[in-house]
Amino acid sequence: MKTEIRFVLLFYIFFQFSGSLRAIEEQTLVLGASSGWNLVGQRRGVAEVSSVRPYPVLLLSSGQASDDPSLDMALSFDEGQPGVFRDKTGNYSLSVSPALSAAGQHLARFGTGAALFSGNRMDSSSAASGSEGPLVAVPRSPEALFSSGQSVKDFTIEFWLFPANAENGEQILSWSATRQSMQGQSTFQRIQCMISGNRLLWNFLDFFASPRDDHRLTLSVTSSSPLIPQVWSHHLIRFDSGTGMIEYLVNGSLEGIVYASSSGGEGGDIYAPIIGSGGSLVLGGRFSGLMDEFRMYSRFVETPVLTKYPPRGGRFRTEPINLGTTNSSIVRIDALCGRTSAIDGAVRNDYTGASGYVFPDNSELRFFLRAADSPYRWSGGDREDDSSWMPFIPGTELPDFVRGQWVQVEVELFPSGDGETTPYVDEIRVTYIADEAPTPPSMVRVIPRDGAVDLSWRASPAADIGGYLVYYGTSMGEYFGESAILGVSPINVGNRTSIHIDGLENGTLYYFSIAAYDRANPPHIGEFSREVTARPLRTVP
């Protein structure tokens, strides 16, 4: 019974000791959290945000693209301060008054900010500066859609609105300019968007002119559904110059339609805008609430973007990470994650850590890696065209063949089914075992012979021994011997623990040391063993 207990205790001690050795061998490289995301290079549709967790996380970007060639004005309000709000297209210059503030990401519909209007059209400081409203946009480029003299064809205006109260008379948008017709008549043209009867009302005053410019129209279109306070809603009005049709959409649904034509419907002469001079666009003149992603296009936008996050998701990829030695074993990769959304000012943050990467709302994270001893072996193309990428589940042990001095990690992020929630990555931990050179063999012994020696040693305890190198020479610590029949120092004896070396000179004292090497390519050569000496001599027959 005592023998059995002693055996169990010895086994337990051995298990704990071997486990601690493994823990000592393992090293961890951290991305994210307090280490930051500097090693993340490529990012597509991904933003780094600091308001979700104590340290910045990577999540899907909700900012809308600005590379549409028909985009005429793009105000994202993501700059953080009203004084630096800008039109991303460069077609319009902006001026703001103290009545305008900037809201943070938790209140924004898209991106990292929104414009916050106080409801006061002018205060003393804005009146003194000559400002017409909280935010005024003036054409600065002759290519701008609303620059003087432009004959406008198709156009679209869209924005997101979050009214505080939705009171009658609140003015959302106002465009005004003056022009002379071809007959010399002076006209004042205007576009108004305002709240009337809990709905948005659009008025076009002398904005559309007949083909001969001798007649102008006043048109109005309103939504059929009420404007709900403290709820984000999308508003889009678009003009088709081929039919004269003006459509008003709220949250993607058609709410109103009128025609800029001589018949008041389909057919007849089509009226079109001719932009006057001295024009300016005022946003939020008497409006209390938030506005986000104000945009104008020189085309008829068929399908507006309504979801916060793109259905195709996004991805990020680290730079090649150097683990220090070739043939390093990547043991596992852990990831700490969650999901977050901000809807109508209410922020939801579900931090799941390492417990899951697919969420009930169908938001999802997918992970890929590749490893090699040289980063130049990778094609560098998209993952779909590169078979070196391997999918993996964070936290699971990786196959032993996942080895290399360099490793890259790629993560794909997909939004929820309704496009309102994004997953995020808080931290990535790469656990690896560097393929260090094997320890030297022990218990090296040498026996002198006639013109030779016999060497033997105990094998190195390393698991991936490829073989041994025998160093010899005639001076302590200097192993430059050349006389042995097996060759000059060092002699590669393969994976064996004894060797007979012929061709040595009798009477000469030789110094020997042995180093182990592993199976890496190229192999890692370990340190020298204890040095031993022997003097070959002729023996008495």
Written overview of the protein:
- The protein has 541 residues and is mainly beta.
- It has 3 domains: 21-60 and 311-433, Galactose-binding domain-like (Jelly Rolls, Sandwich); 71-297, Jelly Rolls (Sandwich), CATH 2.60.120.200; 442-534, Immunoglobulins (Immunoglobulin-like), CATH 2.60.40.
- It has 2 helices and 35 strands.
- It has helices spanning 2-25, 124-129, and strands spanning 26-32, 40-44, 46-49, 57-60, 71-75, 92-96, 100-103, 114-118, 135-139, 155-163, 171-180, 186-196, 199-209, 216-222, 233-240, 245-250, 253-259, 272-273, 277-283, 288-297, 314-318, 321-322, 329-343, 346-353, 364-372, 390-392, 406-414, 422-433, 442-449, 452-458, 465-473, 491-494, 498-502, 510-518, 532-534.
- Strands 5, 7, 8, 10, 15, 16, 17 and 20 form an 8-stranded antiparallel sheet that branches.
- The longest helix is centred in the first third of the chain and has 24 residues, at 2-25.
- It is rod-shaped and about 130 Å long.
- The protein starts with a helix and ends in a 7-residue tail after the last strand.
- InterPro entries: ConA-like_dom_sf (IPR013320), FN3_dom (IPR003961), FN3_sf (IPR036116), Ig-like_fold (IPR013783).
- Residues 437-541 form the Fibronectin type-III domain.
- This is Fibronectin type-III domain-containing protein.
Q: In this structure, how is the largest beta sheet organized?
A: 8 strands, antiparallel
- In the CATH hierarchy, what is the architecture of the largest domain at level 2? Sandwich
Total domain modules: 3
CATH fold annotation of the largest domain: Jelly Rolls
Overall residue-averaged pLDDT value: 87
Q: Report how far apart the termini are.
A: 58 Å
> Rounded to an integer, what's the Rg over CA atoms?
38 Å
CATH class descriptor name of the largest domain:
Mainly Beta
General shape: rod-shaped
Give the tally of β-strands.
35
The helix-and-strand class reads: mainly beta
Number of helices: 2
What's the quaternary structure here? single chain
Amount of beta strand: 35-45%
**What is the share of helical residues?**
under 10%
> Unreliable runs, pLDDT <50, ≥5 residues?
5-24, 122-131
Protein name: Fibronectin type-III domain-containing protein
Organism: Breznakiella homolactica
Pfam families: Laminin_G_3
Domain Fibronectin type-III: 437-541
